[in-house]
Amino acid sequence: MNTRVTELLGIQYPIIQGGMAWVAEHHLAAAVSEAGGFGLLGAASAPADVIRQEIRKVKELTDKPFGVNVMLLSPYAEEVAHVVAEEGVKAVTTGAGNPEKYMEMWKNAGIKVIPVVASVALAKRMERCGADAVVAEGMESGGHIGSLTTMALVPQVVDAVDIPVIAAGGIGDGRGFAAAMMLGAEAVQMGTRFVAAEESIVHQNYKDRIIKAKDIDSQVTGMSTGHPVRSLRNQMTREYLRLEKEGAPFEELEMLTLGSLRKAVQEGDVVNGTVMAGQIAGLVKKQQSCRAIIEEIMEEADKLLGRR
């Protein structure tokens, strides 16, 4: 399936793997790219030298295009931005901030810049600043979320900009892919489905929690702080929501979640850790290779879109 996004990134299928903190490392990114999608490394709050090593490890595993997601709130964002330019990845996606100050450097290095946006206003601003595409991410997604749903956000962003739009949030199978295309998107970005991939390095407890999840199992914490996060309900989310309801200060809430994502991903503590996952978790029923995931989605989407 050829779209402006497949041409922009030099990939076979318009499927991008989300740059998830602690999850999107070199094994997963390389596997997605090898399967014809676009793999991303999640820089999160990692130091620049760690990201440089991760980039080089991906290059050892695949010669296919891949990128890096740069979290602009990271204390190492400036150094990571320069490492990305020096190492020469295909594209950069950005979150938690405005990437304008790095645009010129990345563009001069031949890197495609694709900011993640949660509003029409930010999408238009990113286009004016020279972004090559945008990821319109709805609140159905796991992790940090905005306030608009994918169904509402994507078509409005498509109408507002001329650059390609990538849909994200609540997409986990061929039906979601086809729906995104019908809304005007030219690719999709998926996170939760790839967390449960065979090549994903997350603890098996985390994967099993996603596979066993029901439709109502995701919960949003942090609404009162202005930093809402979607994850699967457990003891940690219940405690967070209790404290939040009682008006606990932001610092106390932050201490509760400090290191909790690493605890879930690496140690498998799905009771007290943060099990970030989108509302699509209830659709994930099995562990598959990245290639099987992508080919299954494309086969189903082709049949649905072909009918139309």
Automatic annotation (TrEMBL):
Annotated InterPro entries: Aldolase_TIM (IPR013785), Enoyl_ACP_red-II_put (IPR017569), NMO (IPR004136)
Alphabetized CDD domains for the sequence: NPD_like
Oxidoreductase as UniProt keyword: yes
Entry keywords, A to Z: Flavoprotein, FMN, Oxidoreductase
GO molecular function: nitronate monooxygenase activity
SUPFAM superfamilies, alphabetized: Inosine monophosphate dehydrogenase (IMPDH)
Biological role stated in the UniProt entry: Nitronate monooxygenase that uses molecular oxygen to catalyze the oxidative denitrification of alkyl nitronates. Acts on propionate 3-nitronate (P3N), the presumed physiological substrate. Probably functions in the detoxification of P3N, a metabolic poison produced by plants and fungi as a defense mechanism.
Name listed for the protein in its UniProt record: Probable nitronate monooxygenase
Organism, as annotated: Candidatus Egerieimonas intestinavium
Lineage of source species: Bacteria, Bacillati, Bacillota, Clostridia, Lachnospirales
